[in-house]
Amino acid sequence: MREKVEAVLNQIRPGLQMDGGDVELISVEDDGTVKVKLVGACAGCPMSQMTLQMGIENTLKEQIPEVRRVVAVPL
Questions:
Q1: What pTM value is reported for the model?
Q2: Which residues span the domain enclosing 38?
Q3: Listed residue (43, 64, 48, 56) closest to 13, CA to CA
Protein backbone atom coordinates (compact mmCIF):
# COMPACT_ATOMS: atom_id res chain seq x y z
CA MET A 1 0.00 0.00 0.00
CA ARG A 2 2.97 2.32 0.53
CA GLU A 3 3.49 2.58 -3.23
CA LYS A 4 -0.17 3.57 -3.75
CA VAL A 5 0.10 6.26 -1.07
CA GLU A 6 3.29 7.64 -2.64
CA ALA A 7 1.59 7.77 -6.04
CA VAL A 8 -1.33 9.79 -4.65
CA LEU A 9 1.01 12.10 -2.72
CA ASN A 10 2.87 12.71 -5.99
CA GLN A 11 -0.43 13.96 -7.45
CA ILE A 12 -0.95 16.31 -4.48
CA ARG A 13 2.62 17.61 -4.29
CA PRO A 14 2.54 20.18 -7.12
CA GLY A 15 -0.18 22.18 -5.35
CA LEU A 16 1.77 22.20 -2.11
CA GLN A 17 5.01 23.08 -3.86
CA MET A 18 3.38 26.05 -5.59
CA ASP A 19 2.92 27.53 -2.11
CA GLY A 20 6.46 26.68 -1.00
CA GLY A 21 5.59 23.52 0.92
CA ASP A 22 5.69 19.78 0.52
CA VAL A 23 4.71 16.53 2.20
CA GLU A 24 6.93 13.56 3.05
CA LEU A 25 5.60 10.07 3.66
CA ILE A 26 6.89 8.73 6.96
CA SER A 27 5.00 5.44 7.25
CA VAL A 28 1.90 3.46 6.39
CA GLU A 29 0.68 1.49 9.40
CA ASP A 30 -1.16 -1.85 9.32
CA ASP A 31 -4.30 -0.20 10.74
CA GLY A 32 -4.58 2.14 7.73
CA THR A 33 -2.94 5.14 9.39
CA VAL A 34 -0.70 7.17 7.11
CA LYS A 35 1.95 9.27 8.84
CA VAL A 36 3.31 12.27 6.97
CA LYS A 37 5.51 15.24 7.66
CA LEU A 38 4.58 18.65 6.29
CA VAL A 39 7.71 20.56 5.29
CA GLY A 40 8.66 23.96 3.94
CA ALA A 41 5.96 26.60 4.12
CA CYS A 42 3.42 23.93 5.09
CA ALA A 43 5.26 23.18 8.34
CA GLY A 44 4.49 26.52 9.95
CA CYS A 45 1.33 27.48 8.10
CA PRO A 46 -1.77 28.14 10.22
CA MET A 47 -3.80 26.35 7.52
CA SER A 48 -1.69 23.19 7.68
CA GLN A 49 -4.32 21.21 9.63
CA MET A 50 -6.93 22.02 6.98
CA THR A 51 -4.47 21.10 4.22
CA LEU A 52 -3.81 17.82 5.99
CA GLN A 53 -7.46 16.88 6.50
CA MET A 54 -9.30 18.44 3.58
CA GLY A 55 -6.59 17.99 0.98
CA ILE A 56 -4.25 15.13 1.77
CA GLU A 57 -6.47 12.88 3.91
CA ASN A 58 -9.60 13.22 1.77
CA THR A 59 -7.69 12.57 -1.45
CA LEU A 60 -5.94 9.52 -0.02
CA LYS A 61 -9.20 8.07 1.34
CA GLU A 62 -10.98 8.62 -1.98
CA GLN A 63 -8.29 6.87 -4.00
CA ILE A 64 -7.20 4.24 -1.47
CA PRO A 65 -10.11 2.88 0.60
CA GLU A 66 -7.72 1.10 3.00
CA VAL A 67 -6.52 4.47 4.34
CA ARG A 68 -8.34 5.18 7.61
CA ARG A 69 -6.64 8.39 8.73
CA VAL A 70 -3.70 10.66 8.04
CA VAL A 71 -1.65 12.17 10.84
CA ALA A 72 1.19 14.66 10.76
CA VAL A 73 4.29 13.84 12.76
CA PRO A 74 6.17 16.69 14.45
CA LEU A 75 9.20 18.12 12.72
A1: 0.91
A2: 2-72
A3: 56
